[in-house]
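User: Hello! My lab partner asked me to get a predicted holo structure for this protein. The small molecule is nicotinamide-adenine-dinucleotide, SMILES included with the sequence. Please write out the structure tokens.
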Amino acid sequence: MSNRPLNVGLVGGGKGAFIVHPHQKAIHFDGTRRVVAGALFPDPKIALEEAANWPYPIKGYGSYDEMIAANASLPPDQKLDYILIVTPNFVHYDPAMKAMKAGIAVFCEKPLCLNLKEANDLVQTARKLKVPFGLAHTYLGHWTSRLSRYIVRSGLLGDVRWVDSYYLQGWLATKLEATGQTQAVWRVDPKRAGGSGCGGDIGTHALMQLRYVTGLNVEQLSAQLETFVQGRMLDDHFTIYCKLSNGGKALVRASQICIGYKNDLGIVVAGTKGTLVWRQEEPESLTILLPGQPDRVYWRGAVTPGDGFLPKDMPADLMAEPTIPSGHPEAFHDAFARLHRCFEADVRKWKEGKPFNSDGAKYANVEDGWMGIAFIETCVKSSKKKGAWTPMPKAV
Ligand SMILES: NC(=O)c1ccc[n+]([C@@H]2O[C@H](COP(=O)([O-])OP(=O)(O)OC[C@H]3O[C@@H](n4cnc5c(N)ncnc54)[C@H](O)[C@@H]3O)[C@@H](O)[C@H]2O)c1
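Assistant: Hello! Below are the structure tokens for the protein in complex with nicotinamide-adenine-dinucleotide.
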């Protein structure tokens, strides 16, 4: 294909929506992708009004069905190259399926969908149709997550014994949903959020960070899903003890009732030779703890191969990924941009009929999404049995 910017269509994002905005900024980050269309709201009239009021010109549609159907008759340079799904969880499956079947690549918000049946369908369809499918696990897009993955997976810390992967928030410490707050209302409703509230919303990020950095999977788990705010139907506190595929152990935990906590996602990986510590609220560095040595703090873009801990032959693509010099902080938007940038590369290859490698190394893929949903379903099952050890289903 020519090097024209990729055309992106939004599903969701109108009327005070949240996550569409970091995404649409990240889409425009490099000048090689742009938002051209949107089905921004469930009510068609409002969807069109919201599109007309979008900060830059886009083609509005009354529904994602219309947007996907209209795509078939557009000239090649105006066709959508991918859609971005930024709707609540119960509106992920349908647009994702329809887009794939219409030959449009999909970048979808997490969690992938509502249940394992939907997740199975999405994996099978993406594989059968060989369509690029990305899942927006934002925090994988930090360069320091890439470096963490390299350090742990290349064995520099020895064998992984223990992981603490967590995401703590405080914004649902009171019954915010009763005020009608847009983001709270659907997140506490099992029909719109899925089988777990806090776990599905942010526990899946903690699980993904663990899997991305260590390359390990959860084989069995013992779960406590708890609800501190009275009258809430889903968990707002989520604590999962896990047995990992290498025999190590992990805690995957999340909470939305920790007053004062904002978006404290972090990971501690304790290996037989040392420990890695990383927090997304300070995403520009990670810390390595080694026995009998001062702590090593590695800043994005300021890493020296062959420094006595890191090897001389660091992967070239990892070393090339930082955008601006360290000390000019990258953050949330940059992480999203890195994901879209890597997804774009796969979409371009796919459009040119070349093999593409949506293997989860650069952004989470549909299989990662399946794993998140399988984890949530297994946690719900275990928690109902008072935390009984429960095996994860075998991957599709
Ligand atoms: N990756 C992250 O860091 C991150 C952060 C926040 C939210 N999320 C995920 O993003 C998704 C959206 O979350 P949010 O907080 O932005 O929600 P939101 O409620 O702020 O926005 C959802 C938008 O979808 C629209 N919508 C609902 N049904 C629709 C339909 N049928 N057609 C078109 N539009 C429709 C709503 O009108 C709204 O504009 C969720 O799946 C959530 O889990 C991810």
